[in-house]
Design brief:
Length: 358
Amino acid sequence: MTDATSVSSGARNGSRRVRVLIVDDSAVVRGIFERELARDDGIEVVGVAADPFIARDKIVTLKPDVITLDVEMPRMDGITFLRKLMHYYPMPVVVVSSLTPAGGELALEALAAGAVDVLCKPGSAYMVGDMSAELCEKVKAAFHAVVRKPTAKPEGKPAAPQRLSMTLTTNKVVAIGASTGGTEALAKVLSVLPANAPGVVVVQHMPEHFTRSFAERLDGLCAMNVKEAEDGDRVVPGRVLIAPGNYHMLLGRSGANYFVQVRSGPLVGRHRPSINVLFKSVARYAGRNAIGVIMTGMGADGTDGLREMKAQGARTVAQDKDSCVVFGMPKVAIEIGAVDHVAPLDDIARTILDLATL
């Protein structure tokens, strides 16, 4: 983006329609916003964008007056994009997200980053009709706002940690696969993670009916909530979902929300649940918002999936040889170039947390 002190150089006297760009990763939400904003004679929707990188190009070519921006998006979260936009190309932004309730901390963070206003997406208690009028009103008000490049923070004062947008979103997913020796290794890793750690999905090769007891045991050891996964369970911070024995577990996504699908089906690589099945679904739906961990186990399950995760921008970790009960799956993953970091068992939890803040 070209550096600028202001965008929307057209007259702000209400003599023409406000040109709006909608930025949201959900096609459903984009469609709703486009339809509802278009109902207002004073607003023209000039484009939509599914992520900040597409938005960046459309801002340059379409020169909108106002942007509506979701904070939960692939490739770059909305808060990060907002900060970059305000630095290089300041313009009126209305943050529209299910994660910005009135008075909420994330709303304050968005406003501090330069957003003109914030608005909740329609939900069970906030219907589309109720949202539409307010959205149009805020967009037209933003058009008249004076937007300037944020001033630098005073020297000598440390900048506030900018991790809130990560910890309050569902955009970080930790996927772990383990087999032989994995039950104790998982207990060691998961018991160290704090209660607000990113959501974790786990495949541990284990027979049917054993995974529920395993999950209950882990729940008693961990600050996070641990449970055997059920179809439709959401992947949220503070929760660990263990794939049930004899069922595959896949990651799915609806808008900003991640959830798991629990399915039967054929064995994959002689396994059900299969680590590869989980990791490949994580690669598809979480991409660079994910962290993949391959731990002790025999064979090669999970290695192809981990490679796909890495190819989609996920950060990947393998347990090192000395701490593995069986250095099979991690060894293959390392050999095929699917691993970014190799760590001893005692360091895996810290590695996960460090990567989650990047």
